[in-house]
């Protein structure tokens, strides 16, 4: 009888250990999937930021043809673009993105003083491309931040936080940008 009870207890303990291991493996794999989703969403932002950075030289060259004495604004845009292309992590890219947005806003405000430039088809097309890219960046940023929110919430919840601590899953940063700096200025092509 003692042998039978011992085997039952041993069997129950064995089942509990197996269930705990299965839970641990499943939880760990779920966290890995969430972390990879965040990485993928960051890559989406990166692609759009690079697309935007690729449009900037064409915009600058178009503006240079019309705006002869606005070198400081053009240099600021060029420097901001270089900073964006050099940025590696979420925080640096976020700051560089804000810097480029601000520089582009300043440049586009200057453009208001040049009616021939505003009417230039190449400039209008570039501006449309840039506005479309800004929208894609906003969507990619929203998707990334949503993935980060899900990941950060998961690693904080009990009992998942145990596996997160063992597996070295750390909190991730949001891609933050000042909304006022990321919006292009409204440009009115109609003469008053």
Give the helices and strands, then pairings.
Elements: H1 2-66, H2 71-86, H3 90-111, H4 115-119, H5 121-156, H6 160-166, H7 179-182
Helix pairs in contact: 1-2, 1-3, 1-5, 2-3
Explained architecture:
With 192 residues, the chain is mostly helical. The chain has a single domain, classed as de novo design (two linked rop proteins), CATH 1.20.1440. Helices cover 81% and strands 0% of the residues.
Quick rundown:
The chain is mainly α. The protein has a single domain, classed as de novo design (two linked rop proteins) (Up-down Bundle), CATH 1.20.1440.20. 81% of the residues lie in helices and 0% in strands.
Mean pLDDT: 88
Strand elements, count: 0
CATH class: Mainly Alpha
Q: Do you know the CATH architecture? A: Up-down Bundle
The helicity comes to: over 70%
Q: N-to-C terminal Cα separation, in Å?
A: 100 Å
What is the overall shape? rod-shaped
Core attributes:
192 residues; mainly alpha; de novo design (two linked rop proteins); 7 helices; 0% strand; rod-shaped
């Amino acid at each position: 009888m003692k042998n039978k009870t011992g085997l039952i207890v041993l069997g129950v303990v064995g089942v509990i250990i197996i269930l705990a291991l299965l839970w641990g493996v499943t939880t760990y794999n779920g966290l890995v999937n969430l972390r990879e989703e965040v990485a993928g969403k960051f890559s989406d932002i990166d692609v759009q930021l690079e697309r935007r950075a690729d449009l900037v030289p064409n915009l600058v060259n178009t503006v240079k043809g019309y705006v002869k004495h606005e070198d400081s604004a053009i240099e600021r845009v060029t420097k901001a673009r270089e900073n964006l292309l050099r940025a590696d992590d979420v925080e640096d890219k976020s700051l560089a993105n804000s810097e480029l947005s601000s520089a582009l806003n300043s440049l586009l405000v200057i453009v208001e003083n040049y009616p021939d430039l505003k009417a230039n088809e190449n400039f209008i097309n570039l501006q449309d491309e840039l506005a479309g890219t800004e929208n894609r960046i906003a969507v990619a940023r929203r998707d990334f931040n949503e993935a980060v929110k899900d990941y950060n919430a998961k690693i904080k919840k009990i009992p998942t936080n145990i596996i997160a601590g063992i597996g070295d899953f750390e909190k991730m940063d949001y891609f933050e940008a000042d909304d006022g700096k990321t919006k292009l200025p409204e440009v009115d092509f109609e003469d008053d």
